[in-house]
Design brief:
With 106 residues, the protein is of the alpha+beta class. It has one domain. The chain has four helices and seven strands, in the order E-H-E-E-E-H-H-H-E-E-E.
Length: 106
Amino acid sequence: MQTIFDILKHISVNHQEVESNQVVITDKVGKPNGLLTDLLHDLINNALLFVTLADLESADELIEHLRTHTPLPVDVLSEYGKILTETCEGLNFAPQKGQIEIIVQR
């Protein structure tokens, strides 16, 4: 199974990394998970400004890079690590919404 890190690393929109408004985390029936989506948006909007995912091999490497190169607190990095390692059960492309739904089991 792939993780959210893997999805973010390998999915692009118009040959660019995804933007926060383009992704939502849902369950298998499409119900959005607001808490995880908000955390993912925070990660994309704040932390991914400092790195290019294509240059990294793992979520751990990303967290380590953020730890050494940003002033982000340990608790924030811990939450980012949790969302990045969440198992992805699938993807749903919703062009009418302009979104990619990352499906997780929760």
